[in-house]
Design brief:
Length: 467
């Protein structure tokens, strides 16, 4: 497998991919029914089209519970036309249809998103809010139908899928937006402007905390099986993932995030939010290395309960890589780090500390060298008069809708969403493979771990594909 991965990535950069030589890679990944190529030619099923300025967007939704329901509500409030809903759970599907029925009484319902894409040829855009493992398959299929896509975070579940997503989006000329919706807020854009201004100088380290996971993980697969509810299509829920028996209250509805086959744990859930502003503000580029430096016990099928991950990431705006520390499982920087950086105040869950040579940005406050205390950003004389350089928008969903109507490119399109997601997913790999993992960004592989490289590609169950 590792050798084939290496061969696969090398072949992906050579002209003879267009010959029959690629067929030898068809069995590179167990469970694959077709070759995996992130740069395979895209066969468009229909032409990409944009809605007219001021027109309602005709939308389909894949996933209607949880984040799916929240996204449906946002676009419904914007006044867009809800044409079709898809969910493998008929209870959630019916509830979503009822929610929009007053204004969209003819909304059509589907269990299988593949059927929805085949039948609904008048759609402009699709929102994908499934469990992580189905993001790539559904979104890439939609793009190949010429549809613009809003995809929940993380954009995809594996590194290969991110590469494929980027390639298909470019080939199809569609608008995309990852659902790290803080990007649509004034406060996040202001934080980006502050970092871009250089007021705190070159940044050496960043510490990010979260209260996740808030779902069960750090456990083994339960034995046996339970009766599948008649309202749930378990086969469609599994999708590309390996077949396994249904167990009540173990995977569906919200408890899938901690399982390797379906989710990306706490880091996949939150880091695309928490890391977004400094990823853009510091012009971060490529992961150099990643290591899970602290972890509770590891399990064969789920993420650990708590970890600390360290990523070293290059930046085009400064000479040295930035060390990004990620803390989950309700952990935080140690006492000495808090004393050094935050005057001894323990970083609360959901906090981010950005450490520069001239100052520290911490949860909406700034302390430059010479300041006695942290000062609120809006009150700090060094930044309160910095010019506004980034456009302000109504919100993240509105920005996507306007782009589909021919407006400006969304803030979290593939040029931002893909590299950020890839860095997060490399962090997720480190939570499964002990030791420092050195990353070769040019070759898209770890240089010192075959085990880690094997986790960069998805499993594809028979009958499913990704693009």
């Amino acid at each position: 497998m590792p050798d084939r991965w290496n061969d696969f990535m090398e072949l992906g950069r050579r002209a003879f991919l267009e010959t029959g030589a690629l067929s030898a890679l068809a069995t590179a990944v167990p469970g694959c029914t077709a070759p995996l190529r992130h740069d395979a030619p895209v066969s468009m099923l229909s032409q990409t089209h944009f809605a007219k300025p001021g027109a309602k967007i005709r939308m389909g939704f894949i996933g209607s519970g949880g984040r799916g329901g929240a996204n449906l509500n946002e676009f419904f409030k914007l006044g867009e036309e809800i044409v079709a809903l898809c969910d493998v759970d008929s209870i959630r599907l019916d509830a979503a249809a009822k929610k929009v029925s007053a204004r969209c009484p003819r909304v059509r319902r589907y269990r299988d998103w593949r059927e929805m894409l085949e039948r609904e040829r008048s759609l402009d855009a699709v929102v994908v809010s499934t469990p992580d493992h189905m993001h790539a398959a559904a979104a890439i299929a939609a793009m190949k139908h010429g549809l613009h896509v809003y995809v929940e975070k993380p954009l995809v579940r594996t590194f290969f899928e991110a590469e494929r997503f980027r390639h298909v989006a470019a080939e199809c000329g569609v608008v995309t937006q990852m659902g790290n919706n803080g990007n649509g807020t004034d406060s996040q854009r202001r934080n980006i402007e502050i970092l871009q201004s250089g007021v705190i100088g070159d940044v050496s380290e960043i510490h990010v905390t979260t209260n996740r996971p808030i779902w069960p993980q750090g456990l083994e697969r339960p034995e046996g099986s339970d009766t599948i509810p008649p309202t749930l299509d378990w086969n469609l829920w599994l999708g590309i993932a390996p077949k396994r028996p249904f167990k009540k209250n173990v995977y569906h509805a919200f408890k899938w995030r901690g399982w390797f086959d379906f989710g990306t744990g706490a880091m996949g859930d939150i880091a695309c939010h928490a890391m977004s502003f400094f990823w853009r503000g510091l012009a971060l580029e490529h992961v150099v290395s990643v290591e899970c430096v602290k972890s509770t016990p590891r399990f064969s099928e789920t993420y650990p309960v708590a970890t600390t991950v360290k990523l070293a990431v290059t930046s085009s705006s400064q000479p040295n890589p930035v060390d990004v520390y990620w803390y989950d499982g309700k952990t935080a920087p140690d006492v000495e780090t808090c004393r050094r950086l935050t005057d001894g105040v323990k970083s609360h869950m959901g906090g981010t500390i950005v450490v520069g040579e001239r100052g520290i940005l911490w949860n909406g406050r700034l302390k430059l060298k010479g300041d006695k205390d942290f000062i609120r950003l809006q009150d700090h004389p060094a930044v309160c008069n910095l010019p506004v350089t980034l456009p302000r928008v109504r919100n993240h969903h509105w920005e996507f809708a306007e782009a589909v109507r021919g407006g400006a490119k969304p803030f979290s399109d593939v040029d931002h969403s893909v590299p950020l997601t890839e860095a997060v997913l490399l962090g997720c790999v480190s939570q499964r493979v002990p030791g420092r993992l050195d990353w070769d960004a040019a070759r898209r592989r770890f240089v010192n771990s075959d085990e880690a490289n094997a986790l960069l590609m998805p499993h594809l169950r028979s009958g499913w594909e990704i693009g």
